[in-house]
Write a structure and sequence with these properties.
This protein has a seven-stranded mixed sheet, sandwiched between helices. By secondary structure, it is α/β, with parallel strands linked by helices. Bound molecules: ligand KE4. Ligand KE4 binds next to helix 4.
């Protein structure tokens, strides 16, 4: 595969952008090759600047659940752009977006728009601390909540991929207020709540872990967190930046029937433009400035262009009959094919899937239900598999500790091509 132009472009980028990328995981560091530089995309096909085409299972890390360059989203952007892209003043579009989120997400009475998942989690933590007047937060090792200081403590996603779960630059003073529990281990949470009785503002969790690879919540885990939060006077925060609008219209909280006090959202909500949001009970959200004392602001928050794209996205999710059933059947087809490939090639591995999120772990473990089990994966084998898959025209997340994102645009033909390419790759690694 000719990747000459990508190589030149990446070398040029590295002269003026740290690592040549604006987000570390894009640098393909853990898969041992230079990244391909993308020219354009449509539907499920992305094309790099050398003209190579790939079926995309990253979907820009989740947002493009309708596929690339979706016509209704492009139309919404075009129509809105000609009226101006941002005013720094209220618009009806923001209210329409907020009304739709409140209608779709069960536990959200009010919502504040921001510009990324990181901004959403950073802000929601400040709000939780302001509301409870407590300082500590419990997060789970391997969960990733963006790059705000309080969360770069044993963080997942690119942080573990690059072996940087605890980043320099995060002060000891900040780190001491973040307590670490083990995902799917309720005892580890109760121990911390008991030890720090009355000091924990919130428990924040990825209701389906997507940043250590996909690790589903074990039966009773989310329900248990709800009970512990209530018993110990802490707020429960669901970080639904990945799962929001993906697992169901109402995200993981609808899918599992467990309602948090606060929710963070991102990715899908912007239709591919930069949008994040956080929301929850009115009693808590009303503490935010300008009515309340908890300050949070943003020049481009809720800007009309991003709102228009996001509204078109959410309307499509609401108005497409059988949308989630279709996602489920596409992703199940992929899961079954990957499992068959593991058997056919006697490759030790585990496939974890929840809805349209899945990860193929190259591991000797019988199951992957915890951070430690995920970390036992063979990242070298994954890197080899990734390179063969790319050669075979399949674009995967360049890390063992990320998810495959199946979109509504993926056809059975796309899925079957991925399964065939996966088989070929497994036979070579
Ligand atoms: P952003 O700031 O990247 O928009 O969102 C941060 C975030 C928050 N919460 C969860 C559960 C997330 O998964 C993320 C970001 N996800 C990663 C991929 N797993 C983004 C990809 C990247 O870092 O380039």
């Amino acid at each position: 595969m000719n990747q000459e132009k990508s190589r030149e472009a990446f070398n040029r980028a590295a002269k003026v952008i740290p690592g040549g990328v604006n987000s570390p995981v894009r640098a393909f560091k853990s898969v041992g090759i230079n990244p391909v530089v993308i020219d354009y995309a449509k539907g499920t096909t992305i094309t790099d600047i050398d003209g190579n085409q790939y079926i995309d299972f990253v979907s820009s890390w989740g947002p493009l659940i309708l596929g690339h360059a979706n016509e209704s989203i492009l139309e919404a952007i075009r129509e809105t752009a000609v009226k101006g892209t941002s005013f720094g003043a209220p618009t009806i579009l923001e209210t329409e977006m907020a009304e739709l989120i409140v209608q779709m997400v069960p536990s959200v009475d009010k919502v504040r728009m921001v510009n990324s998942g990181t901004e959403a989690t950073m802000s929601v933590l400040r709000l939780a601390r302001g509301y409870t007047k407590k300082d500590l937060v419990i997060k789970f090792t391997g969960n990733y909540h963006g790059h705000a200081d309080s969360f770069l403590i044993k963080a997942g996603s690119g942080a573990i991929t690059l072996g940087l779960p605890d980043s320099p630059g995060v002060t000891k003073a900040t780190a001491k207020d973040t307590l670490l529990a083990d995902y799917n281990e309720l005892d580890s949470v109760e121990l911390l709540l008991k030890k720090h009785q009355g000091e924990v503002a919130a428990i924040i969790v990825e209701p389906v872990a997507g940043n250590m690879g996909v690790v589903p919540p074990e039966k009773g885990f989310l329900e248990g967190l709800r009970k512990l939060a209530d018993n110990y006077g802490a707020l429960l925060i669901f970080d639904e930046v990945i799962t929001g609008f993906r697992l169901a219209k109402g995200g993981a909280q609808e899918y599992y029937g467990v309602h948090p006090d606060l929710t963070t959202l991102g990715k899908i909500i912007g239709g591919g433009l930069p949008v994040g949001a956080y929301g929850g009970k009115a009693e808590i959200m009303d503490l935010l400035a300008p009515d309340g004392p908890v300050y949070q602001a943003g020049t481009l928050s809720g800007n009309p262009l991003a709102m228009a794209a996001g509204l078109a996205m959410l309307k499509a999710l609401n108005e497409t009959p059988g949308f989630y059933e279709a996602l489920e059947s596409k992703a199940a087809r992929l899961e079954n094919g990957l499992r068959e490939n593991l058997e056919k090639t006697a490759t030790p591995g585990v496939v974890n899937r929840v809805g349209s999120l899945l990860t193929l772990f190259f591991t000797q473990k019988e199951q992957v239900t915890s951070y430690d089990e995920a970390m036992a994966s063979d990242t070298e084998k994954f890197a080899n598999y990734f390179r063969h898959s790319l050669e075979n025209g399949i674009y995967l997340a360049p890390s063992q500790f990320e998810a495959m994102f199946v979109s509504y645009a993926h056809t059975d033909e796309d899925i079957d091509k991925c399964i065939a390419a996966s088989l070929e790759a497994m036979q070579k690694i």
